[in-house]
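Students often ask what a 'structure token' actually looks like in practice. Rather than answer in the abstract, let us consider Phosphoribosylamine--glycine ligase, a protein of 418 residues. Its sequence is given first.
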Amino acid sequence: MKVLVVGKGGREHALVWKLAQDVRIDTIYAAPGNVGMTEAICVPIREDAIGELVQFARDEQIDWTIVGPEGPLVLGIVNAFQAAGLNIFGPSREAAAIEGSKQFAKALMDRAGIPTADHAVFTSAAEASAYIRSQGAPIVIKADGLAAGKGVTVATTTTEAIRAVEEIFAGDFGEQSSVVIEECLVGEECSLMAFVHEETVIPMVLSQDHKRVFDGDQGPNTGGMGAYSPLPQFDEQAVTEEAMQRVLRPLVEQMASEGIPFTGFLYAGLMLTDRGPSVIEFNARFGDPETEVILPRLETELLDVIIPLMQGDMPEVVWSSESVVGVVIAANGYPEHPETGHLVRTDTIGSGITVFHAGTVAGDDETVLSAGGRVLVCVTKAPTMEEAVSTIYQGLDSFDRTGFFYRTDIAKKAFRTT
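Now compare that with the structural description of the same chain:
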């Protein structure tokens, strides 16, 4: 078999790594991929060059294409591949709007009766600022469209909230025509992803991301500074069952009833409030860096989930009971102004750690250089969370951190009972 993975980050490297364990797969291509994806053949096609990707898949007779990032999904890569008669796993352009437009997602949740924060939508900074002053803080400000995980501000003052609104309309997160303002939910966050095909939903194991840039959940939001799974501080089975009943199933049933059925990796960011799980956001793809800690726990081959699911069957999915911790190595200055071009010395990372490349490029003389805000995702798996945390941070003690930093408290919440 030949498989194509679309994307270039740590999530896509984890997908390539998982697929490489499947003995039925002869060749894995990554477009455009990155220098760390030694398990794949990287092809120089941008992830948003949909016509070129379709032609490549035709020419190489690709059996399956798996899409990592949200950008090409929102642009309609699945529509284009399906029109060409090519197998691809992901949502259509219409279904990907649950991530491409927060306004669309909120309206959909309202129609489906899915618990989420009270919210309002504004198309001007003046109206949004007036609303903020009337509501007070804390309050949450979200850019309506795609913002690479950074278009969200949990503002503790009205001044901070108004500044966030002004930045969104100034184009700091790309072209945005509206802003969604939400009440600030109280609780602890977790990520629940699922394999979905129309109205069939297979939940994955829970994970927890760390969005804030610094230890202690301080500083601005990022695309994610680390993650871990499982979440021993919760009754995971109860959380998953309630979220399936109140969130995931109602969503896919509503989308199917409206003629926009969802297929792909569905991500629900949840706040576990005293009233139960409430949706922070939906994504139309695997989370990042959650993918890097979820896939090491997936004992079933990825295609043994995807292919039967697409054929209308219910595959058996087996998960490891072991603990996985992932720590993001970020560039100094991230998320606002990340430094690039620093030498990345993966050889200085200790043993027992799997390294996924997220923002790297090839330098001279077979060196690797940083080329983004999140540079590496370092992951380890162990029988207990204590062992996993110990191994990951001992291994990072020796890493050459010139130009880089990382959080030192990933998975700390796992040791607190609720």
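One point worth highlighting: The chain is about 30% helix and 25% strand. Ask yourself how you might have guessed this from the sequence alone, and why that guess would often be unreliable.
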